[in-house]
Design goal:
The structure holds two protein chains of two kinds.
Chain A: E1 10-12, E2 15-17, E3 21-23, E4 45-47, E5 64-67, E6 70-73, H1 82-96, E7 100-104, H2 109-120, E8 127-131, H3 145-150, H4 167-180, E9 184-189, H5 196-206, E10 210-213, E11 217-220, E12 222-223, E13 228-229, E14 235-239, H6 244-257, E15 262-264, H7 271-280, E16 284-287, H8 290-293, H9 297-311, H10 317-320, H11 323-328
Parallel strand pairs in A: 3-4, 3-16, 4-7, 7-8, 8-9, 9-10, 10-15, 15-16
Antiparallel strand pairs in A: 1-2, 5-6, 6-14, 11-14, 12-13
Helix pairs in contact in A: 2-4, 4-5, 5-6, 6-7, 7-9
Chain B: E1 10-23, E2 26-32, H1 34-39, E3 45-49, E4 60-63, E5 66-68, E6 72-74, E7 77-79, E8 89-95, H2 99-106, E9 112-119, E10 135-141, H3 146-157, E11 167-173, H4 182-187, E12 191-196, E13 203-204, H5 207-220, E14 232-237, H6 240-252, E15 257-260, E16 276-280, E17 288-292, E18 299-301
Parallel strand pairs in B: 10-11, 10-14, 11-12, 12-13, 14-15
Antiparallel strand pairs in B: 1-2, 1-9, 2-8, 3-4, 3-9, 5-8, 6-7, 15-18, 16-17
Helix pairs in contact in B: 5-6
The chains are: A alpha/beta, B alpha/beta.
The complex binds flavin-adenine dinucleotide, flavin mononucleotide and FE2/S2 (inorganic) cluster.
Amino acid sequence: MAEIKLSLETEIGRIKLKNPVMVASGTFGYGEEFAELVDLKKLGAIVTKTITLKPREGNPPPRIVETPCGMLNAIGLENPGLEDFIKEKLSFLKKIGVPIIVSIGGDEIKEFVELARRLDKEKGISGLELNISCPNVSADRKPPPKASLAKGGKTENRKPQLIAKDEDATYELVKAVRQATNLSLITKLSPNVADIVAIGKAAVEGGSDALSLINTFSGMAIDIETRKPRLGNIIGGLSGPAIKPLALKAVWETAQQIDIPIIGMGGIMNWQDALEFIIAGASAVAIGTANFINPHSAVEIAQGIEDYLRKNRIKSIQELWRTVLRNFS
Amino acid sequence: MPEMTTQKMLQIQAKIVSNTQVAENYFKMCLDAPLVAQKAEPGQFIYIKTSNNYKPLLRRAFSIHSIGYRLLVIGYRQKRQSQSQKPNTLELLYKVRGIGTEILAEKKAGEELDIIGPLGKGFNIISNIKYQKSKIILIGGGIGIAPLVFLSEKLTKSKIKNQKSKITVLLGAETKEKILCKNDFEKLGCEVKIATEDGSQGFKGKVTELLAKGLLAISHLPASPAWLGGPFAIYACGPTPMLKEIAQISQRNKIPCQVSLEEKMACGIGACRGCVIKVKNYKDEENFIYKRVCKDGPVFDAQEIIW
Ligand SMILES: Cc1cc2nc3c(=O)[nH]c(=O)nc-3n(C[C@H](O)[C@H](O)[C@H](O)COP(=O)(O)OP(=O)(O)OC[C@H]3O[C@@H](n4cnc5c(N)ncnc54)[C@H](O)[C@@H]3O)c2cc1C
Ligand SMILES: Cc1cc2nc3c(=O)[nH]c(=O)nc-3n(C[C@H](O)[C@H](O)[C@H](O)COP(=O)(O)O)c2cc1C
Ligand code: FES
């Protein structure tokens, strides 16, 4: 049987990936932490830990609890802040030779805008991921005035909440960042919402080039001996194999209604898991918690996908992409 | 990954040489891991994948208890590695606590384990050159003695020949059956003092009381008791409340003190910031900073920690 020529390439906005397996924000530091163990050049892309304008010290410990087939984390966006990121982390990332996607976060839209404007001036960044969905920081933001006026001013006296829970705020945020940079924009959605597809649509309208699905599910754990929560922050985000079916469903549902590329993530531990996401409609996948268990996960998953394509004589990721939808309709 | 000497940590499949019970719930495991053993420093740990399914999901951290020189089979000749040759095995001492350690206890010689190591920052021995004539006190509470055997191996080796050992090890446990490694320390020439909570062996009470009593004695007597003679340094590992007390005692007595801490970990290599503890911010006295147990520790200066 003749060898078929196959391609693992995929595109996220204007970012070209040589394979569809990237590493998820917050689970791979700034790349350098894994450099001694992993051949970073083999990654599809690297998404950095979320950075904010000013340094953040993060949540009080304990920050990690293991749960059945998963883990809760409440890191609280500990990061060195924009300027130290540029000074100390970016030069290493730039030299790796794979697309670098910088995850940015904040409490207010203007923080995202300032981050985007500043990062736009730096060389070696392929895109920005907007972390509007970190469940561990409460967004004490002002309501976006224009959008709320257009929809009848319902935002008055609103409690602080995640931007990712609000269509209007998501739209306003993405739009504002879109105007501040030419970098490809990926909006990362939270699953802790009533209708994730609606939020995704708001991001598309705002000008997002792609979506990342999903961030962690809010959860908690209690020590029955002390009756104290097991996390210093009380609540945290659930990740790992436990959330995979939920994540897959979110990707599938969104892919049916939205046409921009989706980066699928949530509990991907091996190449079989990754293929499920691609078949459900993800153009690429991101590996999170699995990096902690096996630092080589992403590299091995990319290899596993290649072997699967070859064995099944499928020439490209695109040929496999969203095939579950076609089979259903 | 190619073998690189510059690599400080490695992920390898290590063959289990032996895995034996040494006391109720306590096991010793020997792993064939030359590259890790050669880089290991006392106080560092390895991060073990105990299971191939998701039960448990995360790796488990274990201090390096000792490094060894095992018989190597080269062709049909058996050759004993001499001490001048490089070490090739790692020893762990572990207590069965839950699912991960239960799985480890079931492992048989010949099986392989996925390990990452050596990880973290170990005990600072170099600074002790200036304390060369000093008395060194190692304090281990419960399973906390695990890294102290490797530490005393290093300390005794780095000592000047003919100099009489000045290492005293204080071991604390609930009862005498749970006193481990006494012989290992004595073989290395260390003096061993024991404290048991039930008084079944040695001093009756906590190991911290034994330490405090000894230190109090020197401040009151013109001549110190035989096992204490300043200046000295303390290295400790064990439950956090014990370490906190030792930190307070060493501060009161102005003794440099290093402690090895534990915190729940995810990545183990400094990337996720999940394993932090609060330490003093020397640049800004009003504030604190978080440091990572897996990367900035597990060994810290006791006075740096905000307990
Ligand atoms: C740097 C470092 C070095 C260590 N060195 C050793 C060593 O040399 N020998 C050894 O036996 N253990 C050591 N430990 C502790 C060891 O990692 C835990 O005992 C192990 O993770 C327990 O796993 P498990 O699945 O058996 O227990 P789990 O099922 O995870 O937990 C069972 C019970 O033990 C408690 N527990 C779990 N982990 C810890 C912990 N880290 N500290 C205190 N209580 C815990 C849990 O709260 C629970 O009540 C070390 C830990 C760290 C961080
Ligand atoms: C310890 C930890 C830290 C994380 N930090 C971030 C973060 O800073 N920004 C972000 O967008 N997502 C963060 N995430 C979420 C992951 O990127 C990912 O969306 C989620 O964990 C689901 O994937 P997984 O199940 O493969 O881990 C974090 C996840 C974990 C486990
Ligand atoms: S466990 Fe991830 S930083 Fe320490």
